[in-house]
Amino acid sequence: MTDATLPIATGAQVRTVMRALLTQHRGRSAAVAVLFLVASGLGLVTPACLGGIVDAVSSSAGFAIIAGWVAGAGAGAIGAAGVTLWGMRALTALVQDTLASLREDVFASAMRLPVSTIDDGESADLLSRVTGDVDAVAEAGANVAPTLLSAGFAIAVSLAALTAIDPWLALAGVACVPFYVFGTRAFLRRSRVVFREVRMREAVRSQAVIDAVEGRETLTALNEQDHALARVQARAEDSIEMQIEGVRLRNRLFRWINGGEAAGLAALLAAGFVLHANDAISVGMVTTAALVFHRLFGPIGQLIFGLDDIQRAAIGLARLVGIIDLAPAVSLPEPVEGPARPPFPEPVEGQTSRQARRTRVGISLQDVAFHYPTTGRGIDDVTLRVEPGTTAALVGTSGSGKSTVARVIAGHHPPESGTVQLDAAEAPYYISQELHHFRGSIAGNMRLVAPDASDEQIDAALRAVGADWAVERDPAASEALVDEGRIQQLAVARALLADPAVVILDEATADVGLLHRDAVEAAIARLCVGRTAVLIAHRLQQAQAADQVVVFADGRIVQRGTHADLVAADGPYRTFWLAQTSAHRPVATLEETETV
Amino acid sequence: MIGVRHQTARAQQQTTPRRLFALALSAEGRGPRLAAATLLLMLHAVCEAAIPVLIGATIDRAVVPADVTALALWLGLLLGVFVVLTTSYQAASRLMVTIYGYGEQALRRLVLGRMLRPRLSQSTLTPGEALTFVNSDTYRVAGVAWSVAQQCSTIAAIAAAALAMLVISPVAMLVVFASTVAMMLLMRVVSKPLERRGLAEQRAATEAGAVAADFMAGFRVLVGIGARGEAVRRYVAASNTSRVAATTAGRSLADYEAVSATLAAVVTTALAGLSAWFAAEGQISIGELVTVLGLAQFVSGYLAYAGSFPSNWIHKFASARRIAEVVNAPDLLDEPGSGGPVRRASDVVLSFCVGSGTGAGAGSGCDRVDVRAGELLGVRACDSDAARELSRLLGMRTPAGRGAVSVLVEGEHRDQRDLGAVDYRRRVVSMPHRPSIVSGTLRDAVRGIASDEQQRPELVTIAALDDTVGQVGGWDAQVGEAGRRLSGGQRQRIGLARALHARAALDAQVLVLDEPTSAVDAVTEAHIAAALARHEGTTVVITTSPVLLAACDRVVELCASTEGHTHD
Lengths: 596, 568
Hints:
The complex is a heterodimer of chains A (596) and B (568). With 596 residues, chain A is of the alpha/beta class.
C-alpha cells in the first residue's frame, strides 16, 4: 500500500522464521498431513466403486455384489467427509496457533523499534504491516492453506489412481498440464500489479468515505456535502474501472484452465477408447478414470486461484519477517519488560517513600545537536542542566526547537553530537503533544502505566486533575465524552498514577476546556513538585513558577534565567510576556467590572 | 403548499429492504444486464452439467462399440460445450463486476447522502457505526446481485441434471428434486447454531487487529509513558482471544461442511443404488448408468451449495433493514416555517440569544446579542460545552427555538426557523471548533475540495500559515489521512484558513469561529488576533483567549446574564 520504508525480508529469512514456527509443532504438522492424505485416498473410493457398479452390472453380477459396490460408494464418501473433518479441525488449530505466534512476534518486534525509526512514512508502513499484512497472511493461512492442502493431495492421489488403472491414462490426463502452466505464469506476471492497484484504489475510495463520515460536521457547516459525495463517487468509479481490469485478467486465466480441462478429458477418453479397444482395460475402468479426472476440475481451479493469495501472503510474510529481523538489531532506550520503577506505585495522595530517590535524578545536556533528516530543521549547541527536583520551562514560538529538545531528552531521537545524560538509569516520563485515547475503558487507559493499580488509586488520580466525569464508571457515557481536552486531562492523571522521577510535559493544557484548565494546571504543578521536570510552556503563566526559564529561537537557546530576571531584561521573553499582558489588561478590567 | 410538498417528500424518503434490493439490482439500467449475466451463468451451469452426460455418452456410444467416428463426433461435441462454458462464464463475470460495483456505489451514495443531509438526522451514529453502515452493510446488500445470479445458476444446474435424468428415469429426477429441497431445509436447521457461533467468533477474531492498530497509532504515546511492555502483554492477550475465536470459527465451518458433504454423500449413494438397480433390471443401458453416476457425483456439490441459500438471504435482509433505518431516520431540523420578517436595527446582520433560552423552547427571557455589519465580535466562553453549543446554534446544526437566531436576508430579518438549512449556512458560516481536514494536499485542505481556485495569500497570512507551507513542503504536499501528518497547531490554523476561504467563496455575511487559537503559541495567537481585527467582514469569535478578546471591537459574555463590555 505505502512505499516500503522499512526493510523487507529475503526468501531465505522468511523460510528460517517459518521453519522455526512449524518445528514447534512437528508432530501436529505430520498428523495433519497424514489425515489429509487418508481423506484424499477415501475420496477416490466413491469413483472407484461407481466404476465397480458399471463393471458389475455389465457382467451381470448378482444383487449382493452390486449392493456391495453401492454401499462402498456411500461409505467412501461419508468416510472421506469424516476424515476431512478431523483433518480440518486439526489443521485449523495448527494454523491459528502458528499465526498467533507469528503476529505476536511481529507486534513485540514492532514495539521494540526505536521511535526515531518510525516517523511519518515509516509509521504508516508499520501500521499497514501489523494490521494489513497480518490479516493477509492470516486469511491465506486460514482459507488457502486447507484448500491447497486438500487440492494438492487430491491431485496427487488421483494421478496415482489413474496410474494404477493404466499408466497411459495418467499420461493422457497430463495433457492438461501445459495449459495450466502457461496460463498461470501469464496470470501471476500481471496479477501482482493489477490486484495491488485494485486494493489501492479501494483504499483511496474508503478514505473518501471515512473523510465524509468523520467530517460530517465540517461538511455541513460549509455546505460541502455534495462535493464529498461527488468525491466518493469519482473514486468508486476509479475503483470499479480497476476491478474490471482484474476480471479481464481472471477471465484470461479461465480460458487456459477450461482449455486444459477440455484437452485432458478428451485425451483421457481417447486413451480409454484405445486401451478398451485393445482389451487392456474394462469399461468400468474407463468410467472410473473419467470420473476421477472430472472430479479434479474443482481442486485444480482452487489451486491455481489460490496461487494469487499465496503470492500475496508471501509478500506480506516477507514484510512481517522484515520487522522481526529489524528489531533485535537496535537497542531499546528503555527496557520493555520490568521497568525500573516498581510495578505498584504508592498512592497519589500523601507523602511518598520514594521522594528521596526521585529527587536525585537531574538532567544534563552538553552541546547537543539534532536535525530531522526530512526537513533539516532541528537544534544546535543546546547545553542545559536541570537540577534534581527542579522545574525547567522551555519557551519559544512554534518551530523554535523546544519540542525537539523534549524529544531528545525523552530518548526519542539520539543526538547527532553532544551528550544527554540522566543522573540515574531512569526513563523520563514524556507527555507529548500527540494525543491518543486507547481503546477500552478509562481505567484500562490508566492502567497502561500501572497494571496493578487499584480502582481507588485510579479514582484519586482522576479526581486530582478534576476529571470527576471519568470517575463515574459508566463506560458508555464516559467513552462518548472523551474529546481531546479530556484526553489531555487523562494523560496528566496517568502521569500522577505512574509517579515518575523525571517528567517532560509538552503543551499539556493547550486544549483542556476552561472548566477544567485550573484543575489540570494545579495537577501539573503538583506533578512537578518533588520531581525533575521539563515543561514546554505554552502559556507563560506556567513558566512563571519554574526554577529556570529557557528561551529558544531557531533551534538555539537565546535566553535563560528566572521569570523575574527575564521580564526585567530586554529580549524575546519580554516580548512574549508583553504580547500576553497587553491582552491581559482589558480582560482584567472586565473581570473587575464583573465582580463589582 | 409547503405542507403538501413536505408530505410527498416524506413519502419518497421512506425506504424498505425491498426498495434497497431493487436499487442495487435494477436501477440505472442494471436490470437487463443482471438478467443477461444470470442467463449466461445458467448457461454455464447447464454446460457444466452436460460434461458428465457427455462422458457417459462417449463411453456408451464410442468406447463400448469401439466406434472411431462416434468418438470423433462426441469428443468434438465435448470441446464445443467447453467453448460455450468458458465464454458464457467470462461474459457473465465481466457484466457482474459492473452491476455489483455500481449497485454498491448507488447504495453507498444513498446512505452517505442521507447521513450528510443538510437538515441533519435524529439518529446519532458514532463515526465507527456510520462506517459500518456505509461499508459492510452496503457491501452485503449489493452482494445480492451475486446471490441472485449464482443461486439461479445453481438451480439451473440441478434442474438440468434432473432433466437429464428424466430421460433415463423419472424416479431419479424426483430423487434429485426432493433431495435438493430436503438439503435446503435440513442445512438451515443444522447450520443455524454452527453459523451463529461462527459469526460471533469471526467478530472476536478481528480483535487482535483492532488492538494492534490502536497501539501502533498511539506508539509514540506508549514510548513516552514507558508502557510498551504493557502494550505487548495486552496484545498477546488479545491475540490469544483471537486465536481461540478463529479456531472455533474455523472448526464450526469445518463441521458445517462435513454435515453438508455427508448429506450429499447420502443423496449420491441413493442415486447410485437406484440407477444400478435399473441397469441390473435392464431398464437403462450401461452408458445411461455411467451418465447417472456422473451426474450424481456432479450434483452433490451443487446440493451442498443450495443448502446455504436461506441463511445467505437472512444476512442480506438484516443488512438491508439496518440501512433502511438510517435512511428513514427523521430529520433533526424542521421544514422551514413561513413566519414573516422580524424587526431589527438596520445595521444588524445577525441576532442571537445567549443564556438558557436558546433551545427549542426559547422564549422571551433571553439575552439578545446583535451582530453589526463589519464588526469583530468576541463572545467570552465560560465553558467549552456552551461554546460548542453556540457554534452549533449559529451554524444551524442544532434545532433552534423561534426567536433564538435571526439573520438579514435581502434587507429584512428572518428567523432561522423560516430559512432552509443550506440557504442559512450560505449566509452564516460557523466553523466547528475542531474542523476535520480533507485527506489530500495542503491546497485542498485550505481552499476545500469544492473549489478549483487558488488559495488567497491575504487569507493565508491572517491564519499565520505562511510558515507552515514551508514546513510541510509546499502547497502540493500531502497532509496525510485527515491531516494526521500535521501538528495540532498546524491543523487549527488550516481550519481557520479554510473558514476564511469558505466565507470568501460563499460571500457569506457572517463568519463564526469557535476557539480558533487554542492550540497555537502566544506570538502566533497575537498575530492572528491583530490580523482578524484588521480583516474586513463580520466575524463572531467564541473564545476564552484574552489575546483574541482584546482584539475584538466588542465582547459579550456567553454565560453571565450581563451584556458585554466594550473596548476601544
